[in-house]
Specification:
It is built from 3 helices and 11 strands, in the order H-E-E-E-E-E-E-E-E-E-E-E-H-H. With about 260 residues, it is mainly β. It is elongated.
Amino acid sequence: MDALATPLTLSPPSLITTHLSNPILRSSFTQKKTQFTKPNINNNNFTAIHASVSSKSTSPPETEALDQDEKFDWFSQWYAVMPVCDLDKKAPVGKKVMGLDLVVWWDKNESAWKVFDDMCPHRLAPLSQGRIDNWGRLQCVYHGWCFNGSGQCKLIPQAPQDGPPVHSFQKACVAVYPSTVQNGIVWFWPNTDPQYKDILTKKKPPYIPELDDASFTYQVFHRDIPYGYEILTENLMDPAHVPYAHYGILRTPQPR
């Protein structure tokens, strides 16, 4: 207990000495002065050169900022209508895509599939219920109006032959959508504005090289389903539902 009561005594800093095992070496440096001789410059031996400064900026052009408010235009894209294998060259076929009623038919005069607005300009009858006449024109089932591959009316049976050419009027034409065939599928551009007539030369449908490769095997089918693409995509990415929701329909492992 006496040892614990004994106060601890510290030496002041001035009394604490430190012994170094190796002494500190001191080096002496000698600075050598260098003398420079001023050259004898004769101003008469020099010619003044005036540099011309260009007013044009040499800096790279500024990158334009992207418009963050730019929205996706759903009606400025190519859309698949139907596979060619499901079409009949002898009869028009109706289809609804992007909320648009379409009619797809084979124009033998131009050897191409055409996509029209499925509505006759006369009485708005669906052209998909019509037929292809002997001259390869799309004929309306209601009053027999006939249209060529450019949408022009070529015949109005009720119009007098010696009367005005009413079939050539602009209001007698059918709206035509730009269309093409790629990967065995008919595609269309959902805008009938004349400025998109040659849109195929500027923008093409998405190309799937495997569909044109003979070494690949695939199956084409289509169904009309009463919901949007986002629900279908989510469904296709959910394989866990297959053995239960498609029980007895698809060849899948039996659910436990």
